[in-house]
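Input chain follows. Return structure tokens only.
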Amino acid sequence: MAVQNCIGDSFRGATWVALHNGGGCGWGEVINGGFGLMIDGSDEAEEKAMSMLSWDVSNGVARRAWSGNENAVETIADAMKNESKLLVTMPNAVTDQSIVENALRQSNLV
């Protein structure tokens, strides 16, 4: 997700973007990303900020929805209703736990 966010922010007008190691989550274990944006009061800066922040926040909410957070599922569904350009693949909850157990057993993970 860090790479996706970083590239998406760059296309939406970030002044700079960075991919880096760690960031408080364990040096050598994760890749994090960040962006900077020069906000100078211009209409162009406002447009870039609105686009980037929408992208960045929506990615975070989508990631949490995919992990099963019910509030995030509801939030990203509402966001898609309000923003016609936003399209997020919605998670499908597994209601029959035996499906997960069988998949793990077949992959020798349990």
